[in-house]
């Protein structure tokens, strides 16, 4: 199955600015994209990176579109056969197993919600469904599917639900991640900090 | 399988004080406990509420122990046969399906991590394992299991990973919850607020 992986190639992960400068944020975004593309291949998907600016990749097709996220994804949906998937590029603890469960979930539209109302992955088996990532997108995608008579299901996965936007999200990578994303954080001095309440991270 | 459900019967959910007064927080904690006990019954578990003070429940055995969480749970583990489970009382979007997957996961110790390093549910098939909820407990529980030669596995569930501590956690209940916890929030005027970035809640 083909999968769109939207990627901000210009100024990614701005909410991590408290920990990383612009070059580091771009490097970290690249490492997460590597990880997501690798997991997609391992789970039998054919990824296309949908980037806001040209990127050089040997492991995936690249399509450049500098419009808004929703417009760019919908343009791909206009061109592609169903079923296909849209998977965010910042799923730092994604595994092939989680993607296997995602693909095995029945329904015309399968939503993998992100924490806080986002849509971290969407599997579209219905031709008429389009995306809108603005606002409470997991709710809006369910409503959009219903509006064209499509059934929706939700996949229950912490790994799919964890997109890496804020410093607190890095806790999940340090605890549940492996491979290159985890290694990148370690190399850049990011460690867990536990002093009561929820665990946070700090950089040395 | 028997399941321990630890419950703070005195001053629960203090991090929700910005939204709810003490009586409301106690009522909301009760509603979440109702929900968790109901889901456990539906999934074939036999719940025992392990409360810090006497509580009146017709749907579960009650055991009162006002010691620390870890000491109280370990005292039950001293008394009970294996396998048994420990499931937190504030899993506001828990479903019987998520519990079914939890129980079906192999391993001497099955960890359902909470967001931010906690342990939201633990399935213990090994007699020598004890709990310690202080600090980064999901990591510590894996290490404790390894220390006694027990295998550990992790269950990948957003529903098990979502404990309700902070206002932002209520977003998940409003989006993915159903039944009485969702209804309680609606009745008390809690709604989603989306104005860019992650979605939050507000109370009217």
Automatic annotation (TrEMBL), chains A, B:
Keyword terms of this UniProt record: GTP-binding, Nucleotide-binding, Nucleotidyltransferase, Transferase
Swiss-Prot/TrEMBL catalytic activity: (2S)-2-phospholactate + GTP + H(+) = (2S)-lactyl-2-diphospho-5'-guanosine + diphosphate
Gene3D superfamilies: 6.10.140.50, Spore Coat Polysaccharide Biosynthesis Protein SpsA, Chain A (3.90.550.10)
EC number: 2.7.7.68
Transferase recorded as keyword: yes
Metabolic or biological pathway: Cofactor biosynthesis; coenzyme F420 biosynthesis
Enzyme class per UniProt: transferase
Family annotation (InterPro entries): CofC, Nucleotide-diphossugar_trans
An annotated Gene Ontology molecular function: phospholactate guanylyltransferase activity
SUPFAM superfamilies: Nucleotide-diphospho-sugar transferases
GO biological process entries: F420-0 metabolic process
Residue ranges of coiled coil: none
NCBIfam families named in the record: F420_cofC
Similarity comment: Belongs to the CofC family.
Described function: Guanylyltransferase that catalyzes the activation of (2S)-2-phospholactate (2-PL) as (2S)-lactyl-2-diphospho-5'-guanosine, via the condensation of 2-PL with GTP. It is involved in the biosynthesis of coenzyme F420, a hydride carrier cofactor.
Subunit field text: Homodimer.
HAMAP family from the UniProt entry: CofC (MF_02114)
Name assigned to this protein: 2-phospho-L-lactate guanylyltransferase
Biological source species: Halococcoides cellulosivorans
Gene that this polypeptide is encoded by: cofC
